[in-house]
Amino acid sequence: MSQSGWNRWFLLSGIVFVVLYLVPGILVGGQVGFMPDGQALIAFVSSNADTVYLAGYLGTLSAFFLLWFAGSLRGVLKGGAPVGDPLADIAFGGGVAAAVIMAAAHAGFGVMSERAASAAGIGPDAAIATVDTWGSLSGVALPIAFAALIGATGLALVRTKILPAWSGWVSVILAIALLTPYSWAVLTLILIWLVVISLWLFVRMGREPTAVSKPAAST
């Protein structure tokens, strides 16, 4: 397989990220939610330590695939941009930041589950602190990082026409929404955006592999 062929398949790592992002919520989201009761949380974690550990591991693992997607997207955007254009690098930086936040938000679940399964157990304050850290990172910090990824990608799409300009403007609008105090209301749109952009670029590169690798003229 050629280098461009590999790069095309790497874009699908964005979809793998979405799947791994959703699975922890399916496993424990109903019990480990916003502002949980301490005693109820301990009871759930103690009786489902393996499930909580798996949820934390998969959430942390998702960061790996988000990094691959961000790097692959950066290559596509740079291929169609003028020399010196910073948008691809800004998008990549946002992806790296989002991956770090994802890993940090979910890593604590592993320690929490191991403590809960130990003879010493875990107190309600420690359990609540772990869940609150996950909630604040996922609900406040993560949207800002994704705003950089999605916003810079959107502007790059408008400039390079790799995809229709309207897709770029929709991305910019989503990025602006993610920078507001109500970003939690549009978190699901991040996942939809990742799936759509991953598949759209995958198909686009398959049909016209040179269309996204020819540098645009500088103006």
Characterise this structure.
- By secondary structure, this protein is mainly α.
- 77% of the residues lie in helices and 0% in strands.
- It contains 8 helices and no strands.
- It has helices at 3-10, 13-28, 38-47, 49-79, 87-117, 124-160, 165-178, 187-207.
- The longest helix has 37 residues, at 124-160.
- The two termini are 35 Å apart.
- Mean pLDDT is 85; it is low at 213-219.
Nutshell version of this structure?
The chain has 8 helices and no strands. The protein has 219 residues and is mainly α.
Question: How are the SSEs ordered, and which strands pair?
Answer:
Elements: H1 3-10, H2 13-28, H3 38-47, H4 49-79, H5 87-117, H6 124-160, H7 165-178, H8 187-207
Helix pairs in contact: 1-8, 2-4, 2-8, 3-5, 3-6, 4-5, 5-6, 6-7
